[in-house]
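Q: Given only this backbone (315 positions), what sequence would you predict?
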């Protein structure tokens, strides 16, 4: 084992602790690839090609846009500091800033708050800024949620910054949830409750990225409330079950529906409705596959053994 390894770093030689030589066949540390040459006793650090940040373009675009907004009443120094902050986010930052700033100013947000929020979104990504604009529209417009301005901003911010999903898909799913929870045929919730409900459900979809949370929720609700093969529950009870199932996984409803039908089938388990619901909930709770770093936990050998053939509630 080598105590020290000489490093060839962009043509220079340096010293690195023995961890590289003794334990690295390959690694990635802070974006660097490191490979060990055992023969030469050299730890070679490979630097990925750095991408040019077109900071000047982003700065000038932002500065020129703000300069043309005479009504803002800001000094050149103030505008320059804002543009410099936006430029830190590199490619596309000016467009993100302008997109968010425009809609906030149109809605009547004061300049300082609009600038701060637009800067935050500029530092995120294109998808987040687009999602913010679309969700803000749904939250603020009279024919949708018609929320007070601060609440509409807060809701849009939560939805936009809590996900990396495609903007068009995420915004359309949010709109679908809002329309469903406001309509009498859907949940018939009040606008404030519908806003919180929609934001909560969208947040369940952070990790799955491309799944349709709105469509999945509505399909599960229709099964729970209306399907002839479903439990035909009141809306409130159905909503509680649907939310619990989807907290585990957005598409957990597939497991719930299949498990409920299996449990009710007289040729299979033949359970009563309440037992079938419990069985389906227990099975749907397993919808999230364990990651390699989180293996399936072993059962407690001292725990009371329940029916081993069909699950915890089958009698």
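A: Predicted residues:
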């Amino acid at each position: 084992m080598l105590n020290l390894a000489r490093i060839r770093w962009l043509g220079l030689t340096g010293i690195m602790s023995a961890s590289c030589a003794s334990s690295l066949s390959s690694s990635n540390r802070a974006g660097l690839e490191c490979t060990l040459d055992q023969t030469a006793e050299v730890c070679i650090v490979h630097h990925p090609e750095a991408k040019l940040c077109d900071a000047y373009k982003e700065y000038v675009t932002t500065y020129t846009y703000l300069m043309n907004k005479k009504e803002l009443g800001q000094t050149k120094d103030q505008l320059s500091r804002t543009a410099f902050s936006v430029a830190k986010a590199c490619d596309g930052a000016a467009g993100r800033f302008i997109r968010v700033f425009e809609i906030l100013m149109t809605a009547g947000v004061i300049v300082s708050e609009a600038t701060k929020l637009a800067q935050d979104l500029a530092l995120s990504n294109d998808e987040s800024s687009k999602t913010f604009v679309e969700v803000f529209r749904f939250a603020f417009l009279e024919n949708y949620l018609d929320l007070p301005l601060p609440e509409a901003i807060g809701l849009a911010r939560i939805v936009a910054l809590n996900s990396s999903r495609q903007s068009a898909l995420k915004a359309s799913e949010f709109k679908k949830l809002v329309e469903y929870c406001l309509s009498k045929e859907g949940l018939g919730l009040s606008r404030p409750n519908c806003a919180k409900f929609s934001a909560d459900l969208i947040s369940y979809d952070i990790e799955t990225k491309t799944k349709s949370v709105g469509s999945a929720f509505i399909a599960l609700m229709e099964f729970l409330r209306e399907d002839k093969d479903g439990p035909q529950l009141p809306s409130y009870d159905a909503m509680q079950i649907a939310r619990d199932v989807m907290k585990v996984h957005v598409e957990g409803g597939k497991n719930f529906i299949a498990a409920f039908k299996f449990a009710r089938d007289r040729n299979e388990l033949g359970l009563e409705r309440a037992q079938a619901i419990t069985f389906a909930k227990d099975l749907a709770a397993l919808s999230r596959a364990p990651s390699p770093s989180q293996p399936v936990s072993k059962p407690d050998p001292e725990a009371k053994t329940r029916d081993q053939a069909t699950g915890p509630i089958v009698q």
